[in-house]
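quick one before i forget lol
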Amino acid sequence: MVGGLAHAQLPQYFSGLARTQVQYLVDQRIGLQPGTTDGNLTLAIDPDTPLEQTLVSLRQDLVNLPAITQAMYQIDSSAGKPTSVSWEIEESRTVFPLLNLGGVKDNFFYLLGINDIHFRGRAQQLTAFYQNIDGEHNYYLGLTNAAFRGSPWGYQLESRRYAAIEPIFFPSVTINYRYSNLSFGAGLSYTTSNRHVFRVGVSNFYEHYRKVNAGAGTPGPDDLGLNKALLRFNHGITRVDQFGARRSGTAHQSVAQVVFNLEQDQPTFVIAWHDFRLYQLLGQHGNLAGRLRAGISSNENSPFAPFVLDSQVNIRGSGNRIDRGTAQLVLNLEYRHTVWQDNRDRFAAQLVGFSDFGSWRNPGGSLEDVFDADNFRHFLGGGLRLISLKAFDAMIRVDYGIDVRNVRERGVVLGFGQYF
């Protein structure tokens, strides 16, 4: 117990901060406040809570931050009373390349770029990448600052081009379209003291559809361009603790979007989904991970439905845009087992077994479609993770999935970072 320190501010001194600014630790809403000098912060001490318990909790909050790998503390005292706490911090590598590639029959994609999750030493995120899908050239450029000038307010700016050859499913035939989407967007965010994050954003984008190698008289437009505006709302809360290559905790992310067609008299399109993620430690080496996504949209009887079945985003091994729907229910389960970690805690390797399950509502159909066995897709598989423990979520991922119902349907997916 810390007697006589009722809600006292105990100084916290940090060493080992090279790129990280001290103000960054204040911005993260983990209980630290500006100190008496530029070199220290203060921590409010509850007299009813043991000091060690408070510092252990703060240490976990620190190592959960993407910019910090390790944090060790020492209590400084005088006459038997604590006077300050000295911290030795080991920073993460926060600038790393982006790599994502994979392939199934008639589809190959790769992505190359760079991601700085600690831009300017203040956890601003700067991302830039080039992506090639089916020979189409794409890019993304984005900047996120979640704590503008140390406040709970933040902003996001981004520009993106996405293009690919996508199959569109008509009742009698499947037709390939060259689809492209060029967008520019901006957003505002607010982070509460208990780390709920609320975001609102707007963007303008231009969609273009053009038939590829389709004969005359086939259904669907030959060439279609649409200028649209999007209004987006997000809410997220992440309570996940990092333990080296493993994680424990839960995360929620809710998204709602309203799309307005700026050129044609068409109804407003609405789409919403919720992601829930769960991570559970098992023994000394195991980690159970799960992701459940439920989504729904305006139920237009259109072949251009928004929810897709795709190796890159939900069902590993399935391929490129295999199916579409106006509602979805997707469950991804993984067991990750750490099979090796070097003595200096720099690198690790995990073997992974996974089960990816998904179901969709047919465009114009009923919600009962989600529970129709004909709309179920289930892939089982395994993979390997090669992990750098000195950088946040930095790993090379290789997965191989096989369709449970049709073992001839299979594919490899490679990427950077965990699948979820």
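fyi The domain at 8-91 is CATH 3.10.20 (Ubiquitin-like (UB roll)).
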